[in-house]
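quick one, 416 residues, struct below
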Amino acid sequence: MQNCGWPAVDQPAGSRRMGSNMGTSKSSPPGVELRSGVQSESIRIKFMYRGTECRETLKIAHSKANIKYAERLRGEILNAIALGNFSYAKYFPESTQLKKFGLQPRGKDLTVGDLLKQQFEIYERILAPSTLKSYKRVRDKILLGQWGDTLLTDLTPAALRTWIVDLSLKATSVRQILIPLRGALELAINDDLIDSNPLDRVKLQKTLDRDAYKAEYEVDPFSAQEIAAILGAAQGQARNVFQFAFYTGMRPSEYIALRWESIDWAGFKAKVERSRVMGESREELKTRAGRRLVDLRRGAVEALVAQKQHSFLAGGLVFLDPATGQGWDNTQRLSLFWAAMIKKAQVRYRNPYQTRHTFASTLLSTGANAMYVAKQMGHTDTTMITRTYGRWVEQEGGVLPDQYCKMTDGIKAGTA
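---
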């Protein structure tokens, strides 16, 4: 049994025989029983748990100090039960009562695979489909193969550090892999299966070499010339969706979920109120500030006007997959059209998310207020803006390209 606040101070049972010279009182406090065998002594404590009287034996001799320890331990257990935070496995990891109450032995025979199974039962109920799919891929292809049969008690910081180095991945990729594992280990802590999370003692900056620790994703916006080349290489609905992306700064999952009813033609704004993941639109956005009104600029309005002929009469989603005539299933499908368009334009490849970075850096470099840009992007404050786009903020004073200008009096939506 683990010491839980009050250490046993006497010798273990069997080290000496009970006699009159010990000064041990024959009486015992309520709920504490003194038991004697042929060659050993023990103290048993009794308490009620989940409507059942439980008896647990402490293999310690009948000294005054040990009797006092048993009394205090019982009191500590009763308090924990009253507060609702009693862990039977923590106090009595070898108890036969654990199975009766349907409790896990404290980490002793539990494997990392068992723990991941429990964690993913929770994930199934709380995660978005795309996130769950990503975590399952990590679990099945990486975590179970490496740690599935490893006892939880054998998962040490040293073993984790060696494994992380052997992955030979960038820090960003390692962090993604560790998310479900860290969550499972936090679950084990909450259930008192382990005392601490071994990952807390693994620092990537000290574990990975300098090149691996560098961020593998950089803000790399397109120039005005590159934007012109990209849009010039596109046509139809593909051009419309990416032109809209360049001139609103919306996330890909947001603009493929945009509905015509969310367009305010009179006020030249688009209401961002949902995202589309795995072919499903959901009323969940990446941040609390994600639900917002985005100003429609000239380039964005032109894209909407051009898109009207393809989807306006049907209502519903604004942007459709040209190959299916249905809404975009996911951003991966969108990326296929993007890659073909970039190749045709002979522009250096960057992913579609860089349209968002292009929007922000363009506004900031021409003197836009950082808080205004943050709100347009769906951030609660300027922290992310200044950290991500600091070098463009320093270049204030440029001239905003015409297509990035807000709609003004005299420009009517619905006209080419």
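The mean pLDDT is 82.
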